[in-house]
């Protein structure tokens, strides 16, 4: 069985059937089974550009990994940790497919099988719709969704921390600081046009905002989601339920980087940034929208999310997991990454960090 590109029809069906039997589809493959039931009938999902996803029988979704790495993959251990901790705010994991190297016995992850949740939307759909409705005065989940996401994110971090907590070393702090500096330098070098003309004068302010990353020695490190944003939050139809998905980590990082423990603030900052980005999308794509109302929503949503995240950590006696000093710097770094991503992969997206970054710097520099 080929791992992704060039697969033949029926491979996803056969993998689900293999989970039921507990035996790999071919002699050089093995399965890990957490849950299984028979399902047949394939339907490909075409929106995922990083992997190839196939729905089977409207019960399971098989995600074939288009890019595998001998160094490993973060999802298996993350999913096992969440299952062991009783975390349920995710599509139920069914199992994994690994290819076994006949010489070394090393495993290479080929596919991840999870529950398929019919009728759900990701946050780039439901959150944008919610905010549009909210600023027009209609009922929506625009101010209740951040509550659920804050609680969900904290519960996820508490569950992931059960596998262990380590402290950031001086070397790690300097590595992260250097990476943030590299992201800034790359953004400055790549972004042209009006956006580049607005970005370059911000360089010294950005550098100053990133400095706390270099001082995070001793910060608690845990396994994290690694690529947390509203697009990773699925929502069912009313009554709303929220689920976090896709534990592959940041697709722009190496496998080794994606598997390393990180400050919980990395995920929290990613979600804070994406709430801002939802607002920028609404402003950009909604003719006649009241921009001031959207900007007000951004601040409210971020505050609600963060307050509920903190409160849920407190309920779990896990306040120590969040290093507040890193929230601003990591958000700034994320906006630099958004610029780079837009230049390399999604040119029309650059309007988002172009609007978000100056507003973020103003907020971080405002008197307390």
From TrEMBL:
The yes or no answer to whether the keyword Coiled coil is present is: yes
**Molecular functions (GO terms):** ATP binding; glucosamine kinase activity; metal ion binding
Keyword Coiled coil appears in the UniProt entry: yes
InterPro entries, alphabetized: GlcN_kinase, Kinase-like_dom_sf
- Keyword entries, A-Z: Coiled coil
- Write out the GO biological process terms: carbohydrate metabolic process
- Coiled coil regions, renumbered to chain: 299-326
The membrane spanning regions, by residue number, are: none
Q: What is this protein called?
A: Unannotated protein
């Amino acid at each position: 069985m080929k791992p992704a590109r060039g697969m033949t029809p029926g491979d996803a069906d056969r993998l689900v059937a293999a989970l039921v039997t507990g035996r790999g589809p071919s002699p050089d493959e093995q399965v890990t089974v957490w849950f299984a039931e028979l399902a047949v009938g394939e339907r490909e999902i075409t929106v995922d550009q990083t992997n190839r996803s196939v729905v089977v029988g409207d019960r399971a979704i098989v995600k074939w990994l288009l890019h595998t790495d001998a160094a490993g993959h973060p999802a298996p251990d993350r999913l096992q940790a969440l299952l062991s901790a009783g975390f349920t705010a995710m599509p139920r994991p069914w199992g994994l497919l690994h290819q076994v190297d006949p010489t070394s016995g090393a495993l290479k992850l080929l596919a991840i099988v999870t529950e398929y949740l019919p009728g759900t939307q990701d946050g780039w759909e439901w959150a944008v719709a919610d905010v549009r409705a909210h600023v027009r005065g209609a009922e929506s989940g625009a101010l209740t969704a951040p509550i659920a996401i804050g609680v969900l994110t904290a519960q996820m971090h508490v569950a992931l921390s059960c596998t262990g907590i380590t402290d950031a070393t001086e070397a790690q702090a300097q590595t992260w600081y250097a990476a943030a500096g590299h992201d800034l330098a790359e953004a400055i070098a790549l972004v042209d046009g009006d956006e580049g003309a607005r970005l370059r004068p911000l360089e010294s302010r950005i550098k100053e905002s990133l400095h706390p990353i270099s001082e995070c020695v001793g910060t608690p490190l845990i396994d994290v989601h690694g690529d947390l944003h509203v697009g990773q939050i699925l929502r069912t139809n009313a009554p709303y339920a929220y689920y976090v998905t896709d534990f592959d980590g940041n697709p722009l990082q190496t496998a080794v980087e994606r598997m390393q423990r990180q400050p919980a603030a990395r995920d929290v900052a990613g979600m804070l940034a994406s709430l801002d980005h939802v607002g920028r999308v609404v402003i950009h794509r909604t003719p006649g929208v009241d921009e001031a109302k959207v900007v007000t929503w951004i601040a409210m949503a971020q505050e609600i999310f963060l307050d509920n995240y903190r409160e849920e950590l407190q309920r779990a006696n896990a306040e120590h997991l969040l290093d507040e000093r890193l929230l601003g710097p990591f958000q700034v770094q994320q906006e630099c990454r958004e610029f780079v991503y837009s230049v390399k992969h999604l040119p029309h997206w650059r309007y988002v960090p172009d609007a978000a970054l100056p507003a973020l710097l103003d907020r971080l520099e405002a008197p307390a």
